[in-house]
């Protein structure tokens, strides 16, 4: 029992040794997102709608 108390007493000062500091540089997160597919699909739909609404401009 005395051993446990002495162990805790010896470890008590170590509890305040942890320092947390903010980094000097901001954290940078790079997200490489590919939006090409969405843009192509959107443009394709817009082009199809335009051609359907103006058949005289695109004779076949």
List keywords for this structure.
YnbE family lipoprotein, YnbE, mainly alpha, lipoprotein, 2 helices, single chain
The helix count comes to 2
How far apart the termini lie comes to 97 Å
Q: How many strands, which pairing sense, and closed or not: the largest β-sheet?
A: none
Strand content: under 5%
Uncertain segments = none
Write the element-wise H/E pattern from the N-terminal end onward.
Answer: HH
Mean pLDDT: 78
Write down the Rg.
Answer: 34 Å
Coarse structural class: mainly alpha
Q: Which word captures the global form?
A: rod-shaped
Structure description:
The mean pLDDT is 78. This protein is 47% helix and 0% strand. With 60 residues, the protein is mostly helical. 0% of the residues are buried. The protein is rod-shaped. InterPro entries: YnbE (IPR025985). Pfam families: Lipoprotein_19. Keywords: Lipoprotein. This is YnbE family lipoprotein.
């Amino acid at each position: 029992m005395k051993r446990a108390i002495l162990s805790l007493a010896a470890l008590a000062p170590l509890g305040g040794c942890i320092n947390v500091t903010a980094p000097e540089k901001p954290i940078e997160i790079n997200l490489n997102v590919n939006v090409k597919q969405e843009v192509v699909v959107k443009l394709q739909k817009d082009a199809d709608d335009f051609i359907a609404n103006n058949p005289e401009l695109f004779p076949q």
